[in-house]
């Protein structure tokens, strides 16, 4: 294990924001991860887990405690069964499954971060979610001090949520197992309308795996959602807010606000989200509330490519970012009565 003191954390995040940690440990094996967690827990030291850093907003004062960077590696494929170490780079792992001719995560190409973070957030995009293919998660249980294997059902997956996110102090993900599909070189059924249009097929059709992955990468790049050190639109955490899910009564009130503000007959995006609930688009809400692409005058602004991404234009502080986020949340609430919820994890700060 590598150990540093008063270590900068900003370079370990895609926002490139945040102050230093009292101590930074980099672990390259499961045993090192467990040892570092046990040591911190035994001493009562606050612990911050860092993977790819693509879903973290760290305060300018940094983190008083031990930051543990999980840098484990391991890609094991047995037929259609895939096991990834938590520290594996997610987008590289997706590329390797496509090369192997296996379907199930090809539309999750280009998502920054590590494999261990995917079950926590139930990462999803372009019609796929990892919950559809994860079979098991191997984790260290800080409560029982044992390594446990959790089935898909035990992970309690829902939209951008899981058992791990609900109880963030309990589990440390070590490995993730997936059950993929051998569809003779074809993708899973294309579910997302934008992807289907770009591929020139209908929803539910299958296409060559490589074509699905390449199309998703192009769509993401066009929205600034593929990491590029030279492009400040990618100095972000991707989607900063989750798409709101509203109960029927809430959605009816929301539609009324939309008609009042934007004119009779204007319909907001609406997607079924389980009995009695409807999901709408956070990006649409932000745009219609007046926060268009490129909004802002300071070093933290909305992406010039996508209204759902808040970005560091260089030289921003975490407080600059949070001020922009709070402005957007207040503006959307005032306009439509809907309160946006941040997707990234905040450390030492809050909206």
TrEMBL record:
It comes from Streptomyces lannensis. Pathway: Cell wall biogenesis; peptidoglycan biosynthesis. Its EC number is 1.3.1.98. The active site is at 160, 239 (proton donor), 343. This is UDP-N-acetylenolpyruvoylglucosamine reductase. InterPro entries: FAD-bd_PCMH, FAD-bd_PCMH-like_sf, FAD-bd_PCMH_sub1, FAD-bd_PCMH_sub2, MurB, MurB_C, MurB_C_sf, Oxid_FAD_bind_N. It is found in: Cytoplasm. Signal peptide: none annotated. It comes from the Bacteria. Residues 17-183 form the FAD-binding PCMH-type domain. Belongs to the MurB family. Pfam families: FAD_binding_4 (PF01565), MurB_C (PF02873).
């Amino acid at each position: 294990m590598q150990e540093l003191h008063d270590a900068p954390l900003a370079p370990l995040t895609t926002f490139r924001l945040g102050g230093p940690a009292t101590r930074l440990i980099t672990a390259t094996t499961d045993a090192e991860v467990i040892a570092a967690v046990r040591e911190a827990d035994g001493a009562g030291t606050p612990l911050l887990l860092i993977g790819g850093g693509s879903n973290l907003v760290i305060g300018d004062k940094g983190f008083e405690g031990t930051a543990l960077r999980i840098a484990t590696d391991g890609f094991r494929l047995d037929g259609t069964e895939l096991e990834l170490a938590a520290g594996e780079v997610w987008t590289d792992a997706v590329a390797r499954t496509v090369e192997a001719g296996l379907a199930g995560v090809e539309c999750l190409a280009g998502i920054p971060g590590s494999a261990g973070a995917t079950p926590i957030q139930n990462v999803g995009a372009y019609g796929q979610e990892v919950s559809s293919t994860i079979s098991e998660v191997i984790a260290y249980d800080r409560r029982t001090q044992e390594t446990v294997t959790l089935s898909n059902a035990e992970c309690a997956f829902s939209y951008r949520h899981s058992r791990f996110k609900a109880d963030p102090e309990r589990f440390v993900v070590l490995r993730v197992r997936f059950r993929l599909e051998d569809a003779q070189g074809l993708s899973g059924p294309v579910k997302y309308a934008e992807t289907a249009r770009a591929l020139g097929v209908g929803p539910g059709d299958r296409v060559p795996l490589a074509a699905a992955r390449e199309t998703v990468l192009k769509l993401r790049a066009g929205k600034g959602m593929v990491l590029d050190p030279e492009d400040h639109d990618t100095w972000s955490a991707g989607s900063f807010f989750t798409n709101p899910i509203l109960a029927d009564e809430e959605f009816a009130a929301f539609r009324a606000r939309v008609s009042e503000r934007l004119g009779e007959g204007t319909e907001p995006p609406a997607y079924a989200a389980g009995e009695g609930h409807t999901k709408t688009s956070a990006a649409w809400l932000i745009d219609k509330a007046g926060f268009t692409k490129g909004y802002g005058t300071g070093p933290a602004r909305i992406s010039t490519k996508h209204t759902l991404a808040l970005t560091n234009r260089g030289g921003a502080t975490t407080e600059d970012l949070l001020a922009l986020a709070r402005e957007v949340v207040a503006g959307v609430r005032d306009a439509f009565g809907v309160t946006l919820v941040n997707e990234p994890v905040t450390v030492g700060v809050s909206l």
